[in-house]
Design brief:
The protein is an alpha+beta fold. The chain is built from nine helices and eleven strands. The strands form two sheets. It has an eight-stranded antiparallel β-barrel, surrounded by four helices. It has a two-stranded antiparallel sheet with strand order 3-4. A hairpin with a 4-residue loop joins strand 9 and strand 10. Its cofactor is heme b.
Amino acid sequence: MLKAQSGICDEPNLHGLTLFCHVMTDDIDVMRRKIARIPSIIDELSDRFSEAMLNGFIAIGSEYWDILYPEQRPEGFNGFPELRAGHRNAPEQVYDLLITIRSDRYDANYLAARTLNEWLGYDIEIAENVHSFRYLDGRDLMGFVDAPDNPRGARRRSVALIEKQQSSQFEQGSYLFVQKFKHDLKRWDYLGSQRQEQIIGRDKVTAEKLPEADIVGVTHASKARLLDKNEQPIPLLRQNMAWGDTREQGTLAMYFSCQPKAVINWLKQRYFEDEQNQYDPILDYTQAVINSSFFVPSRSFLKASIQQSF
């Protein structure tokens, strides 16, 4: 049975460390072998820090995929969609690899990242290094429960992972869209809780949706709901974590799905105005400074890739 990389569907951890990388070597065979070994290294680290529930994965960037695996490409795997509408701008940044480690110990993440960096050596360059963390009881730094409608239980796997009938070649893989948001918390905090609830569309304490009668205008909850225009469920699993310090802060958002087109449509309905000239109002208070797309192959695909001749 094919097995997905850990970290895609795992439950939230206290700490995260994400590396956005560029590949610096032209030796494709070496990179295939090194990348294929990474899930096993993460397993070994997970056994060593079992109490910390360490997990993680490596994902391949859209452009680098064709260099690494030129004869095999997941259907619909493209770059990050162009999201440009007025002040709502999410420009794409291209990275070759993304490595994420999560656990309940900051030091375990640090050691894991160093171990993986040593394994990859001078063949990669780390362009961005993002430390993230679980904030309070799973809240965004804006003070609201993050993704309260996220799938739970077995449904996490069904929305995030490709099934055999969809693609036997890429079974248990996942399409990944990443956005690093930087919040304007000074402007946000100035609004006060009541106005914030109107923008989000949920109670700040309970995360329950506000009654329709109490809502004025469009809300983030309505624009980011996991239903499409035909009221069909959007297969999307969010693995978001807070990042930052006292100077700047935000959310590292990760969207996993077995259907990339559905996620792209979900992003567009948030950024672009609808027939009533309305968009996701939370975008007035946060800016996505990193926007990238990746594919997270199954362990079996990575192992098989080093046995094949392209």
